[in-house]
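Let's practice the habit of predicting before peeking. Look at the sequence and jot down your guess about where helices and strands might fall. Then scroll down.
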Amino acid sequence: MMSCPIFADVSNRQVSPPVGRVELGTEATLADATIACMYPMTGRSASYGRDSIVAIRLALEELASDPDAPRLRVIVDDSRSKASFAVRMAEDFIRLDNANVLCGMVSSGVGMAVSRLAKQRRIIMVGTDHASSRASLEEGHRYYFRVSSDTWYSHAAGARYLKELQDKNGWRKLAFLGPDYEYGRVAWRDLRQALNQSDTRYQVTGTYWPKLYEPDYSLYIQSLLESPPDVLVVSLWGGDFIAFMEQARTTQLFSRMRVANFDAGGDYETLVSLKDDPPQGLILSARHHVNWPDTERNRQFVTRFHELSGRYPSYSAQGAYAGMMTIARAIRMAGDVTDTDAMIAALKGLKIPLPKDPEGYVSYIDPETHQIVQAQAIGTPVANDHYPPARVLLGNWVVYDAESLKPSPALVNKRRGESGG
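Done guessing? Here is the structure:
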């Protein structure tokens, strides 16, 4: 298996991350399949691409130790977080590189644009990080599968957490702040639907829609302070959420309301940014945690990732790892990656043990929605220096089991019916 020497050397000394095309795994002439992945490698979200590449290397390392595993050639390139650019790149992957499977994507706008191309070109796409539930519900199709939690699962868990919090302290006023594109808009809809399903009574004091990669949140913070909710749910992610918190900390915002981020707020990099003095009242979760679940599989994943890169993984890493292991298992079951019908049949209902799985549970892909079914853990920041440079990690966990978070058949039919799907 070929390594990526421009990314980390054998001494684990961190070196410059890639900013363009990277090829990993088996060379083209010997590969059983070519997997083409798109991740951001530049801009504010570049760390997600950086960590995804390390996780892919980790997965290929594991697969190389299994003589029965398919030999994968993996191409990764910079999506630039732009939908039109990524679609052209995907076309080139199919036409020039003979890609058998498309993979990856962080931005939901990018992911859904490439998913539409996959449907048109009848090529399997495995989403590893973008999270809009519309991709698997309203716009779901036979060629699209996703192996990381989506906005429905995270906000269904968040709604249950808020319901339980309301039973304790009686909060009533709710506000929402999210990026003004596909992901943020769908996250707000998912949260409202989940709260309504639990008969939670609340008053919306405001919704706020900064653009993606917004540099200045001061006007939104001022408006929130003028009409303060009891709870503010934020769906910003990565550097955007870090920037929002840094700017909000210079005001009284955190003393006036509880702030929750149920999908991306508990990412390792975000926790590092909190240093040893997190704002009061934070409620956070993410699609993977370095310290939950406390299982051998998760510890091995986190430790090996650190050995390869010299740092600890963001949640995007677990998604990229899941993508490689899922694709490899499906190829083994199907027998031939070019047999698309057999690949789809293998992926539907496929069980895949992952670092995110609590003890005794194995992730699987829902045959109806093609969305992976996983538990969600929500916590609050507590002092913990076991994974430096983070000085706090999440603790005080509340865990919601996977099956209880699945969208009901009625909700799936309603969402697909409303879209004409």
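How did you do? The first strand starts at residue 22 and ends at 25.
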